[in-house]
Amino acid sequence: MTAPNLITDLTVHTFKAIFEDAVTSYYAPLYRFAYSLAKNEHEASDLTQQAYYVYAQKGSTIKETTKVKHWLFTTLYREFLKQRRMSHRLAGEDEMPLDDDSITVDASTFEYLDPSKTMIALQSVEELYRIPLALYYVDDNSYQEIAEILSIPIGTVMSRISRGRNLLKKILIHQDHSTDSLLP
Amino acid sequence: MNLPLKNTEYTAFDTLLQSKIQQIPIPTHLKSTILERAAHQLEHPLWEPTVQKHPFIHWIHNGCDYIRQWLWHPAFLSACASVCMLLILVFILGDSDNLMAEKTDLPRFWEAALNQSQLDTLPKLSLKSNDLEAINIFLQSNQVPTLDTLPAWIAHLPLKGCQPFHWQNKHMSLIQMGTYSDIQLFIAFLKDFPNDQPILHYISQQKGSYSLVAWNDQTQHYTLVFPTNSLEIQTIPLQKN
Q1: Top-confidence range, A112-116, B77-81, B91-95
Q2: Does an H or E element contain B221, and which?
């Protein structure tokens, strides 16, 4: 085996290991993020697979392994936008006026909430607020990371998460009153 | 009255929601499907590993990436369209200029070409000949400028026929070289044409414009260019084998 081939094989082997590690570490939060976007399991699986497929194709463009997670979330989000062709619609959406009437409810109220119903409630939040909120919840991404993934200012991320949180809370309370399902 | 949540309340709510969201089950075969789907790409990567690149190749690669980003940029596309239109215009104008130059230079060219031939030895071509082969043999045997010495656009004109015409009980032969755009080219041999009635006098009586592109009164050899419809003579079609 010649030296260049050896280097190539070693590099391929190294990237394969990095790829498998990235799958193990991030496929679950990526899937949950995709699920919150697509609102159905099948499409969420497709989006997750597509993000990794693109990563396998363009692995060499990521110079630092620490940026793999950020890159995967960004790619998944872009794939979602591409599939839905919603980029223009999202850009044109107006943000809600600042709602100071935040709801004060003890977090323990939602303690017995079913995870699937929590996801349904999250999926019901308006998309403008749902996307940063989902990134915030599925993998505990920081505001800075979310801002980079969505290519928006960090201040916008913070305000959208804040408003999204209030909307989510309202939906959860509404679910509680309508279905009385919070308690086991 | 509703009051804004305090930071601790936010934290408790967020922590609870995160734990709930993270309990969402993942499809059992998702991980294996991802790995299977990417397996081919991983074994046979389209990309070249960065570490094996020479710095110059790496620099070129990055440059290509940068150019690729600009390829579909509207400003770049419009600039390309402008350059293309400019090139097309230059090509069209240049081409028409070349055509005009060829037409303008035609008399000079033919004069030079004919001067190189031994015109004084030319016999008169049989007027009744309409045989392409006979005409070609005649031209070759008399060292008339061969077609490959002519401008390309003339050289590709097929010989169309022999056109006789009569004047004052005299006749002359015109070998029609062909029609190009709105002109006809002829090679004329006037061995018995009266010297006191030069052909220029005859041509001046014809309708329409004309051009005598080369002549030699001593050898009575003339090369003429006529507008297509000005000469009221009929072409005898060439015999084709």
Answers
A1: B77-81
A2: strand B221-227
Among the listed residues A96, A93, A58, A94, the one whose alpha carbon sits nearest the alpha carbon of residue A74: A58
Provide the chain A residues 145-164 that lie in CB contact (below 8 A) with chain B.
none
Q: Looking at this predicted complex, what is its ipTM?
A: 0.73
Contacts of B30 in chain A (CB under 8 A): 27, 31, 45, 48-49
Smallest Cα distance from A19 to chain B, Å: 9
- B4 contact partners, CB below 8 Å, separation of at least 6: A100, A102, A104
Q: Name, in order, each residue with C-beta under 8 angstroms of A84's C-beta and a sequence gap of 6 or more.
A: none
pTM across the whole model: 0.47
| Cβ-Cβ contacts under 8 Å, A12 against chain B | 42-43, 45, 49
**What's the rounded Cα separation, in Å, for the pair A181 and A114?**
8
Q: Which two tokens stand for residue A142?
A: 């920081």
* Residue pair B16/A107 in contact by the 8 Å Cβ criterion: yes
Quote the radius of gyration of chain B (alpha carbons, Å). Answer: 40
Which of A19, A163, A167 to probe by mutation at the B interface, max B CB count within 10 Å?
A19
Contact B219, B119 (CB under 8 A): yes
B90-143 pLDDT tens trace = 887 765 555 444 444 444 444 444 443 333 333 444 434 445 565 556 656 655
Give the one of A16, A115, A169 whose C-beta lies nearest to B42's C-beta: A16
CA distance B34 to chain A (A): 5
Q: Which two tokens stand for residue B32?
A: 């294996």
Q: What residues of A are in contact with residue B33 (Cβ under 8 Å)?
A: 45, 49
CA distance A93 to chain B (A): 25
Q: DSSP secondary structure string, A34-81?
A: HHHHHSSHHHHHHHHHHHHHHHHHSGGG---GGGHHHHHHHHHHHHHH
